[in-house]
């Protein structure tokens, strides 16, 4: 890994909000692509945070600071990720399901979908089924993407799909789900149209849904 990417990963791990902007700009000046910064620096750092958090070596305030540091860099590279995409190919509605406050992965999916040429409406985190329904009626997306990071909130995806059926909206949209505990088997079980394990595959799947892949 290049030195600057290592420094970016370290800044994310240490929650170094003072340095992250300069480091991201430096990496771009060194001609690293936004994707390289994302994969080799930001994601690498956040993976490490996850391991340390699980091991009890990092605590919630530190993890939040790391998340904010990652988000700060993402704000800089987002236009570049989007720029590398093509023209608008469809609409994606995106939210983290009820009870779940994790939104970094969902934000990445949104960025990748924008990069792939989709108009994205991100309705945030802790979104209940009614929230999805209201947004579908207003935004009229081709695809509804749901994210969950907790085993306890995965079920909310199933409840949301049921609510879409009851509201008569299920046939109008493709439902795509993802998040660390989510699997293809779970997607099949709850009647989602597709599952993606990461943000790049989510954008690919979205393209398949609208027939542009
Ligand atoms: Co939380 N947390 N957290 N947390 N947190 C996890 C998820 C956990 C695995 C940590 C651990 O124990 N090792 C664990 C879940 C255990 C489980 O259920 N199996 C956990 C826990 C337990 C909790 C709390 C309960 C802790 C507590 O309070 N005791 C609590 C729950 C709060 C709630 O949601 N109600 C909690 C809180 C938090 C913070 C608020 C502190 C913070 C979130 C900040 C934020 O998101 N704004 C946080 C964080 C940061 C994490 C870890 C460390 C990192 C998550 C992350 O952002 N990863 C996480 C450990 C880990 O995952 N390594 C952990 C980076 C992100 C890019 O990856 O979100 O997986 P990810 O997204 C990926 C793919 O999953 C996929 O694409 C992305 C990559 O390209 N993807 C999709 C995601 N959504 C998709 C949707 C798609 C397709 C693909 O289609 C629509």
Q: What portion of residues is helical?
A: 55-70%
Poorly predicted runs are none
**Overall pLDDT confidence:** 91
Biggest beta sheet summary: 5 strands, parallel
Give the number of DSSP strands.
Answer: 5
Strand content: 5-15%
What is the topology, as strand order, of the major beta sheet?
Answer: 2-1-3-4-5
Q: Give the cofactors and ligands.
A: CO-5-methoxybenzimidazolylcobamide
- As a whole number of angstroms, the C-alpha radius of gyration is 17 Å
Number of helices: 9
Q: Which class do the helix and strand fractions yield?
A: alpha/beta
Secondary-structure element order, N to C: HHHHEHEHEHEHEH
N-end to C-end Cα span: 31 Å
Question: Which term fits the overall shape?
Answer: globular
Structural commentary:
Helix 1 (3-14) runs antiparallel to helix 2, helix 1 (3-14) crosses helix 3 (34-54) and helix 6 packs across helix 7 (154-166). Strands 2-1-3-4-5 form a five-stranded parallel beta sheet, with helices on both faces. The chain has helices spanning 3-14, 20-29, 34-54, 60-83, 104-115, 129-139, 154-166, 184-190, 199-209; strands at residues 90-96, 118-122, 143-147, 174-178, 194-195. The chain is α/β, with parallel strands linked by helices. 42% of the residues are buried. The radius of gyration is 17 Å and the shape is globular.
